[in-house]
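Try this one yourself first.
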């Protein structure tokens, strides 16, 4: 692509970002809807697991394959879709991917054998993995600077609305029949139509050949800043999925006799505080760099994780959950914003989709690491090790990202 074309692309986006308040951009709200329908496809179906065990005569271990079948394909699906989005364009990849996600997910509700359910979940998971990354990619294409940070913060808030609501909605639907929560992804179909006809993507630079794209992508993927952001994000996901989501409910039950419904409310506090803080990212980044926000948030993570095992009441754990959510509301959109900025137009799709792959790796590795801490030192050790991990991740953020401000 010629320099004049690239300059025109940048100027077009700069003009749009300078004159449009992200909150008043209808196309942006459609992208928030993409994020909203893409999340929660584990937590929404989890209430059906006891019924699935009975209906299909499977064990507690086997019912966990419903999650594994959904998560593993995303390790390949996310970067593949991101690369295609860079080469073919964002909408030509996002729209059909959403259709596959919606149809495969909805078809799970029709499955009447466990193997068929697992196959459909695998297809759904492969399509689900890049959706949030592609939405953020299109947000990054539309805006620059603090407006980009504001828009990504709003998107993180939409994600947290989903993580708060889906478990409750899934529980209500599971009360009707085990298969109804699996029908929720059908909501992706009208959203895909809205993307197709309601979102006008700005012109972006694309590599003119596959060879050139490989060169551009490899240059970005070997950038220490990019690797640093992905590495820090991996550490954050290990803390989130390995310690917090996995063992806070167990600690609440073991020490205070809090039932699953109460534990769900405590976890929801994290999403609420995270979403509220994320909406302020644009304001915060006018004063503090994304790197500094990330380091501050990891310090807050460490404090919250230390407070959890020493809390004398369930209310104390609830307060720690609010604090932990505050940290997530800072670091997740800040890291996404930083990654969107580090990426060129020609490589933004694959870089942000790789972030989705890192999330799934964190989901897989986190419980293993914290499970080892549990075996060696009990529940308290899980949170102390996690707090130490937060400090180490913060140190890594300082070492790798700190020189950029």
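Now uncover the answer:
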């Amino acid at each position: 692509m010629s320099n004049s074309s690239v300059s025109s692309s940048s100027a077009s986006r700069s003009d749009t970002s300078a004159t449009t308040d992200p909150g008043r951009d209808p196309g942006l709200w459609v992208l928030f809807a993409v994020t909203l329908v893409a999340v929660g496809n584990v937590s929404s179906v989890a209430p059906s697991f006891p019924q699935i065990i009975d209906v299909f005569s499977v064990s507690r271990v086997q019912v966990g394959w419903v999650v594994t079948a959904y998560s593993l394909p995303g390790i390949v699906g996310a970067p593949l879709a991101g690369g295609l989005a860079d080469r073919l364009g964002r909408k030509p990849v996002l729209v059909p991917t959403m259709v596959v996600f919606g149809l495969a997910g909805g078809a799970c509700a029709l499955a009447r054998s466990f193997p068929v359910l697992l196959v459909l979940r695998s297809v759904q998971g492969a399509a689900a993995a890049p959706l949030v990354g592609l939405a953020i990619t299109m947000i990054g294409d539309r805006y620059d600077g603090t407006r980009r940070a504001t828009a990504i913060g709003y998107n993180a808030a939409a994600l947290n609305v989903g993580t708060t609501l889906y478990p409750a909605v899934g529980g209500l639907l599971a009360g009707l029949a085990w298969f109804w929560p699996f029908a929720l992804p059908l909501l992706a179909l009208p959203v895909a139509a809205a993307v197709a006809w309601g979102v006008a993507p700005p012109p972006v630079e694309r590599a003119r050949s596959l060879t050139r794209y490989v060169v551009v992508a490899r240059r970005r993927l070997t950038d220490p800043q990019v690797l640093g952001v992905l590495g820090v994000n991996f550490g954050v996901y290990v803390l989130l999925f390995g310690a917090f989501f996995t063992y806070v409910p167990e600690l609440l039950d073991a020490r205070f006799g809090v039932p699953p419904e109460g534990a769900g409310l405590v976890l929801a506090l994290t999403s609420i505080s995270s979403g509220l803080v994320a909406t302020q990212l644009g304001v915060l980044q006018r004063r503090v760099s994304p790197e500094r926000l990330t380091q501050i948030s990891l310090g807050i993570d460490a404090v919250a994780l230390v407070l959890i095992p020493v809390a004398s009441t369930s209310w104390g754990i609830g307060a720690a959950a609010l604090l932990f959510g505050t940290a997530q509301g800072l670091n997740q959109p800040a890291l996404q914003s930083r990654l969107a900025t580090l990426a060129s137009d020609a490589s933004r799709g694959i870089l942000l989709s790789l972030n989705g792959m890192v999330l799934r790796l964190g989901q897989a590795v986190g419980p293993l690491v914290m499970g080892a801490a549990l075996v060696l030192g009990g529940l308290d050790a899980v949170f102390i090790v996690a707090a130490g991990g937060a400090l180490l991740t913060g140190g890594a953020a300082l070492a790798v990202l700190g020189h950029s401000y």
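Discussion: Residues 216-405 form a domain with the Growth Hormone; Chain: A; fold (CATH 1.20.1250.20). Confidence is low (pLDDT under 50) at residues 1-19.
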